[in-house]
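User: Sequence for Maf-like protein plu2839 isoform X4 below. Tokens please.
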Amino acid sequence: MAPKNLSFKTADIDEKSIRKENAEELVVALAEAKADAIMSRLETTEQLEENTHPTLLITADTIFFGYILPTSIGIEVAVYQGIIREKPSSKDEARQFIKSYSGGQATVVGSVVVTNLTKGIRKGAWERSEVYFHEIPDEVIDSLIEEGIILNVAGGLMLEHPLTLPFVDTVIGTADHVMGLPRSLTEKLIQEAL
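Assistant: Structure tokens for Maf-like protein plu2839 isoform X4:
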């Protein structure tokens, strides 16, 4: 049964103003900041408490780390060791990101935060997946950048994009997590928040 009164809102936060040392802390902090921003624009707590059914707010965030797998050696070498990849700030940065995934690997760290607005309960967690890529031709990279959609996604890459999908070798984790909202983690947090 589909939930009643399902709606989507944007958080409109300055993600660059929120910084954490590691990826796991950052994605949870961003999802919590999104929840706080949306909650500030919603009904008052008193109105929500009058509801007979719980009102849930679900927020999420995802970031990428890029790696190259040297084929002659067969081990991972961090290209941007310790650098978190959010949305690319330019076409040049997007090109740099995608080229580093070509023939390599990207680690995706994402979070989900579920806030029960009626009860004031918040549950959050993070998840990590890895995506391994075949070589991505320059013409495909050019097409992705010219299309422009990848400039609005973490790490500058959409796993499910028709131009990207043929170059995905292996996903360790779940595709729904890589695309931004891990279903099983979200369902678990909803149950905990209820």
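The mean pLDDT is 78.
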